[in-house]
Amino acid sequence: DGSSDSTEKVVSNAFQNMKHASGKLFTIPNSGKGFALEYGLENTTGEIIFRTDADSIIDENALSPMMNHFADSQVGSVCGWVYPLPENKGIWANAQRVMCAKAAYTKMAQAEFDSLLVMPGSTAAFRREALIQAGGWTDNIFGEDGEITNKIARYGYRGVYEPKSIVYSEHPETLRGVLQQRARWGVAFYHSRGRNWRLAREFHTPRSIFFLWDLMTHGAVFGRNLLVPLMAALLITAALDLSSPIRSVYHLVSESMIPWLIIAKIVAIHAFLTTLQLGLFGYRLRAVKQVSVLKYWPIMRLMHMMITLIVRPLVINVLLSWSTRWKEYNTQSFKDLRRVVNRSIDPLYPSGEQPVTSSSKDVKAVLSSSSLLLVMRDSISENHVEFLYSDYLLPNSFSNHR
Fold first, then answer.
1. Radius of gyration for the alpha carbons in the chain, expressed in angstroms and rounded
2. Do 207 and 153 meet the contact criterion of CB atoms below 8 Å apart?
3. CB distance 380 to 67 below 8 Å
């Protein structure tokens, strides 16, 4: 997809050292992630398509558990657990490790009701038949991973989460990087949900409930994070009798009583839920032998609050500002959105303004230095598996590491 770094050299060297797989290399002018993935799909023939990203590494034991699920003809897609690369260091990277443990339980709950809303781009396997039936990946969209997940599900295929399959992915090591990444994901959240809004009316499956719940909690958490400091200030001020107007709220309580009992109950409930959370997170982190990162749980909570209070309002403001300039959604409006995201949210995100010498029709005839196709046979399931390796957004740190 228009990669201008050393991807071609790295891939060519990798081909020379392969013992159990063969590969093909394609290149296209920068046309967007959805277009690149669809181009890759058109150049595969495998029964199962596994897609990953340039900033990710597949654990050596990740593939077989995922492939086993496709023995069920109703399974259309399977995803694994995304976890930060070992090279990602610092408090913010470790806080994201705890957040990834939390995300694993969200995926488990959604999968239990066949309501997975996003098959992560770095670790997702698809039945080719399901991809074709759903029309493949959508061009000109943010959040193509969530969009294709819900499209396939609406054709009656089941989505599965396999926690034993781990893919290590690049995560930001600075707070600024985290906020920029989450802002970009926020745009993808609203973009992919908007394209599948009809799900909200399809109550014949639990997916519509999870879909609506996801939308509501996206905003409700913002309100909750605003309310928590206010409630804390209210209780502390009333308990210490620092403000008679606030204390008047407790006019039904005897003047001699201080609401310590209320505070104690709230603290006890919060302590119980926190202990339960830490226990579950620790169990999940045992799989990667990093239980020690639980000490970064407070940083994770702080980071989550900042994402909610800072990033989400920014994303909504950017999208509303952009949408007022366009009466309809088309290729030009999407290109404008890419520029807006590059300027206002994440300067590392490609703006799409680099010169393109070929049209979309010419793209199909050009070889690539940025999409890698690996063909291999899985020893357990005997499925013909093909991998789409999308070099869309490769952080400099990871590029140098490779």
1. 23
2. yes
3. yes
Parallel, antiparallel, or unpaired for β 48-53 and 124-127?
Answer: antiparallel
Per-residue confidence (pLDDT) for residue 244, from 0 to 100: 52
pLDDT tens-place string over residues 188-217: 888 888 888 888 788 778 888 888 888 888
- List C-alpha distances in Å: 380 to 46, 63, 88, 127, 295: 16, 10, 32, 17, 39
The whole-angstrom distance between residue 376's C-alpha and the CA centroid of its chain comes to: 27
CA distance 5 to 166: 27
- pLDDT given for residue 201 in this prediction: 80
pTM of whole model > 0.70? Answer: yes
- Going by C-beta distance under 8 Å and a sequence separation of 6 or more, which residues neighbour residue 385? 46, 47, 48, 49, 50, 63, 67, 125, 375, 376, 377, 378
**196 Cβ contact partners less than 8 Å away, ≥ 6 residues apart:** 147, 150, 151, 154, 211
| Widest distance between CA atoms in the chain | 83
- H helix runs in 240-353, sequence order: 244-247, 260-285, 297-306, 312-323, 331-344
